[in-house]
Amino acid sequence: MKKILCIMCLTAVLLPILLSSCKIITTVSDIVSEIIDGNAVPSANTPQETSASIETNSDARPPETEGPYTYEETYDGLGLVFTGFVDRSRKFTETLVIPSVIDGRKVLEIDFRFSATEVKEIWLPEHLRVIRQHQFRDFPSLELVHLFNEIKAINQWAFAGGLVRIVLPESLESIEYEALAFNQITELFIPKGVTKLGEGCFRDCKKLERVVFEEGSRISEIPENAFSGCKNLREVVLPPARIIGSRAFAGTNIVELTIKEGTSRIGDAAFESSSLAVVNIPSSLKDIGYAPFARTGSLKRFNVSENNRWFLSDTNCLITSEGVLVQGVSDPVIPDGIIEIAAESFMNILGEIDFFIPKSVKKIGNDAFLNGKIKSVTFESGSELSEIGMYAFGGCHNLTEIRLPDKIKKISYYSFGNCEKLQTAYYSGTKKQFLKVCEGGKVVNVFATNDYPNSYHTDVVCKDVTIKKPQ
Question: Which ranges of the chain have pLDDT less than 50?
């Protein structure tokens, strides 16, 4: 009986220790067996098996890399700046653990004055307040950085470009200009405490696939080029930022996008050359910059909130309340009542179709149909069209003829440039009248090709004479 009681007492004492050891022990009988068999409890110095993937921000902070260290006092005198090691020639292992406290004082800043090409993982001080610019430029192999919950800012160009994984702490408030650009991270969770993103902060992270802004995010602007060039970025949970800046998501692989209520402006080329197919527009959006969705050949549909007073979706296109078609889709029908087809609105997205332009359209913007594969363009009888912008139909290689509307007043430079198969253009007025509507007063200005800038392939049939193409 006494033996049993002794064993039970030992069980109560050793249970926590055994559960923390490498061998998993699940029952009291297992514990008793361990004691009777005389197996030793591993000591704190016994090497333990480590996981192949170390969790960022884990509590299991490894022992600090041994000194002696070099350091100095912070400008405000509240702590220390870690600058490196006394032995400047020392070699490092793949993991570097910067001390959080030196001589009883907290390390609040780092200013590395050494290089460590072999280091792949760094544990930063637990009380670090900011990561300075260029801080890890001499760590070309760095893949993983552990940040702790007192850091407020990551400054410009902080990381060298090889970073594979980072977890941003809740304390973080700002990520500055290109601070994490050109890295190899695949996912990002941006805490709601972050209030500022610098231009290009995550640009050209070509392996980045998913970005989530935490619910309750206080970001007011996603800045210019923030995620541009992230060619594998396919999922984004946006914040209700007031502004999405110019080229913020240009060149990404996002297929369906929901812009949150609260966003009021989308900047120039914000989603240019992306993979968007469906875009959901909130009631709060009231301002769109120049060609925000240009060169998105996969666009199928815009869904605009019925409470939006500035935009609507008709035949799946995005249209302003004043009748300007801002962005077309890959299989479009231009509705009656449209007064303008905006710049780059169908650029690079049209297949081999016959295109019909209703008589209400008065202006076609620059590059509106650039590089389209359209087979023909028909202007409705009685067309009000007065102006065709630069390169509006440039590079439409399948066009063979065009009948210009009677009321046309301006045909801009290269409006039909590089249309090699365009053999004939028909104009209802005289030659003199036609030359007057051609910008610069020359036919070549309208129909020239890049290969032969002083030549063109098109005969212009006027009421009184045919203007022959150069031989």
Answer: 1-56
